[in-house]
Amino acid sequence: VTSSARPSSGIAFGIDIGGTKVLGVALDDGGQIVAEARVPTPTERPNGHEVGADVAEAVAAVVALLDDEVHAPNAPVGVGAPGMLDRNGVLRYAPNLPVAAGIDWRRLIGRVVPGRTVLIENDANFAALAEHRFGAGRGADHLVVVTLGTGIGGGIVIDGKILTGAYGFAGEIGHQVVDPSGPRCPCGRRGCWERYASGGGLGRLAREAALAGTLGTVVHLAGGDPEAVKGEHVTRAAVTGDAGALEVMEQLGWWVALGLTNLSAMVDPERIVLGGGLVQAGELLLAPTRRAYADLVEGGGSRPEIQIVAAQMGERAGAIGAAAAARDGILG
Amino acid sequence: VTSSARPSSGIAFGIDIGGTKVLGVALDDGGQIVAEARVPTPTERPNGHEVGADVAEAVAAVVALLDDEVHAPNAPVGVGAPGMLDRNGVLRYAPNLPVAAGIDWRRLIGRVVPGRTVLIENDANFAALAEHRFGAGRGADHLVVVTLGTGIGGGIVIDGKILTGAYGFAGEIGHQVVDPSGPRCPCGRRGCWERYASGGGLGRLAREAALAGTLGTVVHLAGGDPEAVKGEHVTRAAVTGDAGALEVMEQLGWWVALGLTNLSAMVDPERIVLGGGLVQAGELLLAPTRRAYADLVEGGGSRPEIQIVAAQMGERAGAIGAAAAARDGILG
């Protein structure tokens, strides 16, 4: 989704529209951040289109802050937004924020950021691009990047390019159904992968174990109430070596691996990068995931082992990828 | 997987190694079949490598028959084989014929078909290429081709090229897990898609309904024994409008659609082509599949409708795709 203007002198701006903040970076042509800016994301308006206009103003404010610092009036701008965006930059579907559906990011942002090339794409695709270009995915031209947070975001790299698909909706990997009789998902179906292999999924697994009486330490951390157990209580107990918490992390790793093997069955990556809040647990999650993956993948033992590694780009991944794509345009 | 020799004068040979026959075609540069040959597939040897050598001899025999007809000593040869083949033409994994694992098709076939360029690839990928170039997938550069037979084969087209993945194993779509507590699969796991959306899956759905007493006509066709009900009895009864049989076809369409929506979540095709024995049921399968897909796909109603259509290339799809790829090399 590109509009207007001339190529820049090497600087590109990347913006990531998040739930709490609009984060922007100015990236030089060596991939280094030379300026950074953020403003809170406006969310208090009742109407989706008003939210859109307000967020667009926040994006413009971030662009102005970056430009004040680096004076790059021709720098192209990449903007990452959550949800399913079509090739015209229109948000077609946002299961976690239905009121936002229909927002025309290209029109709204193009109007408040005039005179610059603007590229708009799904935020997870930009984060995947950042890992591929600068982070844990370097050198892997067939790559899957999975962000395990409240939900699951993802980006698929094929032959060094981000897969966007026929209409821009590729990489919606969190909404593969892995159990049609599983728990309900905000998307309207049952048993989507992100109901299991996410922060919310970890909480659910933990509460089940807590109610079964196998999570003494974890329940203690949650104030004594099994129903109050959350994912963070499990990871805190797991760090101390608590056996019950480690068993829940093993289960979580199994669910993470199940979705990864489905991705491997379809696109056969050579490496999988895992990011997002859950991966702050490090080897407590990665080791069980690798074990379960090796056990679950079709033909395991008869095919080359693939690498499952932690993301390296942190919270700026989306913004960095947006800037890189705005300059180099290596989306598929 | 390519070896030796010069480009041909326009004719290419394509060979498909099937369970009962080795089928070959000579294709001219307009995509027309100018010769065809077949020999039975040798399968009676107890040792996988002997089977491999015998099948290679059958491939050579088919090549010789084609060459007798069209005299194209420089024609390149594409060979499609079942199972997971790596980029060197070695069969790494064959869940339905474990004895064949390890067969080095490039070495075996290269030895008996000397002096020609030989390209070896998974048969379903070649079938997908044939539909894309000459069949129901024409004009769709983001395409998924699914073969619903005893199991499920598949090929994924991205930007007009067959996706082979990092190691050659992409497109193993039948082994996505859609229910981890489902029935066992020969691949060692539970609940693979091909346990539901295949000929075998239809038989299982039908026997469940028959044992529950809702399939009078179908059970009659099976000789009165609910345990003897097979998929073919259901499709025969469905053609006559039998309500119980139509209900089972509806269930089958739901399972087909479930796996298709997972494919759409990952790669976002603009068209899906369904082939294989089950699709001989035509609209009896396609209509329920389209209905369930529209209901199940994430963001359905907010995204462009995609086309779900029947394959057009028939039993020669694999051989035709193999010939086209041997000449033009448009695999990813």
Write a short abstract of this structure.
The structure is a homodimer of 332-residue chains. Chain A is 37% helix and 19% strand. The first copy, chain A, is built from nine helices and 13 strands.
List its traits:
homodimer, 332 residues, 6-stranded mixed sheet, 9 helices
**Which oligomerization state do the chains in this entry correspond to?**
homodimer
* Envelope shape of chain A: globular
Order of helices and strands of chain A: EEEEHEEEHEHEEEHHHHEHEH
Q: Strand percentage of chain A, roughly?
A: 15-25%
Structural class of chain A: alpha/beta
How can the largest sheet of chain A be summarized? 6 strands, mixed
Count all strands of chain A and give the number: 13
Descriptive overview:
2 copies of one chain form a homodimer. Chain A has helices at residues 48-70, 105-112, 123-134, 199-211, 216-221, 231-239, 243-267, 283-296, 317-328; strands at residues 2-3, 12-17, 21-27, 33-40, 77-81, 84-85, 91-93, 118-122, 143-148, 152-158, 161-162, 271-275, 307-310. Chain A is of the alpha/beta class. In chain A, strands 1-8-5-2-3-4 form a 6-stranded mixed beta sheet. In chain A, a hairpin with a 5-residue loop joins β6 and β7. In chain A, α4 crosses α7. The N and C termini of chain A lie close together (12 Å). In chain A, 58% of the residues are buried. Mean pLDDT of chain A is 92; it is low at 1-8. Chains A and B meet through α7 of A and α7 of B.
